[in-house]
Write a structure and sequence with these properties.
- By secondary structure, this protein is an all-alpha fold.
- The longest helix is centred in the N-terminal third of the chain and has 41 residues.
- The chain has a two-stranded antiparallel sheet with strand order 1-2.
- 82% of the residues lie in helices and 3% in strands.
- Helix 2 packs antiparallel against helix 3.
- It has two domains: 43 residues; 94 residues, no CATH class.
Length: 139
C-alpha cells in the first residue's frame, strides 16, 4: 500500500472515531438530561400534567426517529441511483474507507439493488412509524 492510501485510511479512521465519540457523548448527555427531567416531573405533584409531558416527549422522539429513517432512506436511494448511472460501486465522489476495489457490471447492479431495497425499507418503516405516532397522538 502506498503512503498516500495509508494516510487516507488513517484520516478516515480518525474521523470515524471522532464521530463515534461525539455521538456517544451527546447520547450520554441526552440520557442524563432526560433522566433529570423525569426526576423533576416525578417530584411535581400534578401527575396528569407529568404524564402528558412524557407522552409529548415520546411522540417527538418517535417523529425524530422517523425523520432519521427518511434521511437514511434518501441517502441509500441516492447511492443506488448513482451506482446504477455510473455502473460502479462506490460511485465517483463517494469516499469509501479501506482498500475496497471498484465493483463494475453485475456486482455494481447487485449492490445498487440492495441499496434500493434497503432505502425503500427505511422509507416504509419511517412512514409506518410516523403514521402510528400520529394515530396515537390523535386518539
Amino acid at each position: 500500500m502506498d503512503s498516500r492510501q495509508q494516510r487516507k485510511e488513517d484520516g478516515h479512521r480518525r474521523r470515524l472515531w471522532r464521530s463515534l465519540t461525539a455521538v456517544g457523548v451527546v447520547g450520554v448527555l441526552l440520557l442524563l438530561g432526560f433522566d433529570a427531567w423525569l426526576r423533576h416531573l416525578a417530584e411535581d405533584s400534578d401527575l396528569d400534567r407529568a404524564l402528558r409531558l412524557v407522552a409529548l416527549a415520546s411522540t417527538l422522539l418517535r417523529f425524530a426517529v422517523a425523520l432519521v429513517a427518511v434521511l437514511l432512506g434518501r441517502y441509500l436511494l441516492d447511492w443506488a441511483r448513482q451506482t446504477t448511472e455510473q455502473g460502479q460501486w462506490p460511485p465517483a465522489g463517494l469516499e469509501w474507507p479501506g482498500k475496497a476495489p471498484l465493483r463494475h457490471g453485475a456486482d455494481a447492479r447487485r449492490i445498487a439493488r440492495q441499496l434500493r431495497i434497503a432505502g425503500m425499507a427505511s422509507m416504509v418503516v419511517a412512514l409506518a412509524l410516523a403514521a402510528w405516532t400520529a394515530w396515537r397522538a390523535l386518539a
